[in-house]
User: Which sequence fits this backbone?
């Protein structure tokens, strides 16, 4: 692990020959890696998003068929306020 003169962690990227290609702060490099994401993660997320959507619509249709119309909500009783005389 490399550290800067200010004490921050540094991330060094090397090229094929082993020379330093780029040196940047670890926090910046890590954030960029997180933002980029991997194609495998994106594919998995798309696949996971499709499956529950189909399942949710089927479940919603089943529950709507089972339940009858909703009863109207009960109204709260009116509150009476007393004034201190």
Assistant:
């Amino acid at each position: 692990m490399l550290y800067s003169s200010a004490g921050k962690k540094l991330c060094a990227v090397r090229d094929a020959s082993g020379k330093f290609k780029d040196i940047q702060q670890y926090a910046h490099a890590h954030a960029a890696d997180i933002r980029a994401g991997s194609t495998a993660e994106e594919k998995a997320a798309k696949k996971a998003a499709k499956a529950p959507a189909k399942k949710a619509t089927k479940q919603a249709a089943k529950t709507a068929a089972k339940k009858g119309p909703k009863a109207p909500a009960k109204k709260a009783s009116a509150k009476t306020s007393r004034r201190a005389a």
Q: What stands out?
A: The beta strands are 2-3, 9-14, 20-25.
